[in-house]
Amino acid sequence: MAILFKNGKVIIGNGEVIHRGTVVVDGKKIVFVGSAKRAPSSKKDTILDISGKTILPGLIDAHVHLCVDGSPDPITSLLRDSIPQITLKTVNHARQTLEAGVTTVRDMGGKDYIDIAIRDGIESGIIQGPRMLCSGKLVCMTGGHGWQFGREANGTDEVRAAVREQLRAGADLIKLMATGGVMTKGVEPGATQFTLEELIAGVEEARKAGRRTATHAQGTEGIKNALRAGINSIEHSFFLDDEAIELLLEMKAFVVPTLCAPYHIIKAGVQKGVPAYAVEKSKKVIKSHWESIKRAHKAGVPIAMGTDAGTPFNRHGENLKEMELLVRIGFKPMEAIVATTKTASEVLGLEKKIGTLEKGKLADLIVVDGDPLMDISLLQKKEKILAIMKEGYFYKNQL
Fold first, then answer.
1. What DSSP state is assigned to residue 383?
2. Residue 287: count of CB within 10 angstroms of its CB
3. In angstroms, rounded to a whole number, what is the distance separating the alpha carbons of residues 38 and 205?
4. Beta strand spans in 283-352 (E)
5. Measured distance CA(236)–CA(281) in Å, rounded
6. pTM value > 0.70
């Protein structure tokens, strides 16, 4: 028995729109997208009239940390809490993320492989949450950004060993730390950390296993080193120059901006308990960060939506603020949607399965009361998201 979503605005995810279109789901997959006149149907089908509403692909957040709680000082919380406490929090974060209409995430660094256990729990149906691709422990130099919950490694041999450990644990991708960052005390976002040779070693090990790679890279030289090493995506990209943008285009690499991370830190400030060093560093980088993403976008660099959810006040389930920020820096609403659907699926390597509403793809979709092309902030209002479907199963249905 199929489900027909009829008479709604259909945002395909690739920039195309069908007005008064129909999407048909049968089992786990989409079997038709087009006009109502051409839609296959039978008397047994469930017909849902979505006139005045918009149907979109399930949304994708390409950079989250489900183990990190979004508190004012989340790294301290992560180090203080027990593994059972962190696990319970992570289960809740996964559920909150799915309830926001985000049906797929890429987890970019967890604690002691809790992220991988949660991924497997979601896949088996034990718990509810988005589809997850996990990097396991981020790989960093000793004392480098994220050392508190990462796998420290020095030199090419240790980096290779660290990557192999993540693969053995079941990681879907490998995350390498090319520069310093905001949330690690005593390191600077612009500072280079892993060397080019270390990055090449990490990327080679991942490629041998058929895995993609991503790098935390904020400083200019670290970004260029990662691109020369063959990294697939640059996370954050605070300080891009012309050469870095040229390398991004040449290497066909993606940028995942995470505008939300410094935005929320600055908005909350020390008054709400964010560590002073994090506030100070965020204030120093935010102007360059936003300008770098504007320039990359204008140059045609593929940009995927990612939030860094879990950093201070960057809460799980509030992921879609990032889309509003993308629009604020110059993206058209449709471009922000494409960044959160088609382009994000390409970063994950899942473009043949999800990311657009097309025949044969998995039935990940949401239905929104209204038109996000007119008001992108609609997507942040959970009461406006009337239906959430993942692989043909309704996690929410108020149609």
1. G
2. 11
3. 49
4. none
5. 14
6. yes
Answer for the pair 256, 63: CB distance below 8 angstroms, yes or no.
yes
The answer to whether residues 92 and 128 touch, using CB atoms and an 8 Å cutoff, is: no
CA dist 319 → 58, 150, 252, 384 (Å): 13, 24, 26, 15
The percentage of residues in the chain with a pLDDT greater than 90, rounded to a whole number, is 95
Burial of 271 by CB count in 10 Å (0-12 exposed, 13-18 middle, 19+ buried)?
A: exposed
Q: What is the DSSP letter of 58?
A: P
- Domain 59-348 CATH class label: alpha beta
- 3-58+355-397 maps to which CATH number? 2.30.40.10
Domain extents for the chain?
A: 3-58+355-397, 59-348
**Who's near 55: CB < 8 A, 6+ residues apart?**
5, 8, 9, 10, 11, 21, 23, 357, 365, 366, 367, 368
**What residues are paired with 367 via a beta bridge?**
55, 387
Torsion angle, alpha carbons of 119, 122, 124, 128, to 10: 170
Q: Strands, E, within the chain: which ranges?
A: 3-11, 17-26, 29-35, 46-49, 53-57, 59-64, 102-107, 131-134, 139-140, 151-152, 173-177, 212-217, 233-236, 254-256, 365-369, 385-390, 393-397
Q: How far apart, in Å, are the Cα atoms of 10 and each of 55, 178, 311, 380?
A: 5, 40, 33, 19
Q: At what angle do helices 276-299 and 260-268 cross, to 10 degrees?
A: 150
- DSSP helix/strand/coil, 176: strand
pLDDT at 294 over 80: yes
Counting every residue, how long is the chain?
399
Would the CA dihedral through 234, 238, 239, 245 be positive or negative? positive
Phi and psi, residue 124, nearest 5° = -85, -10
Closest C-alpha among 209, 144, 150, 143 to residue 175: 150
pLDDT digits (tens, 9 = 90+) for 315-357: 999 999 999 999 999 999 999 999 999 999 999 999 999 999 9
> In the β-sheet with 59-64, what is the strand arrangement from edge to edge?
59-64, 102-107, 131-134
Which ranges constitute the DSSP H helices of 341-378?
342-348
Q: What are phi and psi of 90, to 5 degrees?
A: -65, -40
C-alpha–C-alpha distance, residues 25 and 153, integer Å: 47
Quick count: other Cβ atoms within 10 Å of Cβ 36? 14
What DSSP string runs through 199-240? Answer: HHHHHHHHHHTT-EEEEEE-SHHHHHHHHHHT-SEEEE--S-
Measured in degrees and rounded to the nearest 5, phi and psi for residue 169 equal -75, -15
